[in-house]
What does this fold into?
Amino acid sequence: MVNDGNTSFVLPRGATGFFWPKEGPLPKTDLRAFRTALYAAARGAGGKVGEVEEQAYPRTFHTASVVGGAGESIVLCHGHHPWIAFAQTRRNWYGEEFLAPPPWAHAFTDAGFVVLSSELLATPLSNVDTSVLGPGEWREVRFYSITTLGGVLFNAWD
It folds into this structure.
């Protein structure tokens, strides 16, 4: 879909994790900055950092957890753009299983990340500017029946 003014999110190059070598490598989210923000978030939650799993092909995101009095919160960090999301469980891909950001999520925005709301991540692709997506990316979207922004951003397709 081309941006017709009614879209709420514009997908940049690299949002799906795919790239063409002739276009050059995709940007990388600073893992060190993510870890620093993660520890600040854990302090804010009165908890500790749990397991941190770095992004690895074909996943497009890093996964970590903050363990506090309210239990374990799964933190997702996109591997190519500084986007943060929250989920109930660890998975290799997500569709609509996102949670609202917890009160301590500001630690990520304070560190320069963008915390995505569960409502934004549940946005149908028809309301997203997907004009940057190429034929290969659309093939994957259709093959995996992805219908939401979150499904495009936090995936493990190849």
Notes: Residues 31-44 form the longest helix (14 residues). The two ends are 22 Å apart (CA to CA). Strands lie at 9-10, 48-53, 61-68, 71-78, 83-87, 98-99, 114-115, 128-129. The helical segments are 31-44, 106-110, 118-121, 135-143, 149-153.
